[in-house]
Amino acid sequence: FLATIRHNGTMAGYFLCQVNPGFHYGETLTGTTDIFWIVPEYRDRGLFLPLYRCVERELRRRGVLAFYCGHKSENTLSMDKMLPKLGFTPADSYYLKWLGDDRKPSIPNI
Length: 110
Hints:
- The chain is an alpha+beta fold and 110 residues long.
- The chain contains 2 helices and 4 strands.
- It is 19% helix and 28% strand.
- The protein has a 4-stranded mixed β-sheet, with helices on one face.
- The two termini are 19 Å apart.
């Protein structure tokens, strides 16, 4: 599902989350962050927290028991500091190896 946030009627960010049975625990409905993004000029307005809370409410409403939230390594929001404050604990680390051609997509700062 996709959650969005607006500031004075203007789209200011979004959070895309997948909901599926867990890969490792098939009986556990799992929410996995695909991507979240706040428009750069709105990043200092405290919009991530209400957006995140909206996503968590929706996951709970859908019966999700495990919520995985990650971020790009170049993230400028200091998510490694923010996520523990939201109740997350480190669980896994992921590494990326690009298998496509030389046109590797840029990884934007969030």
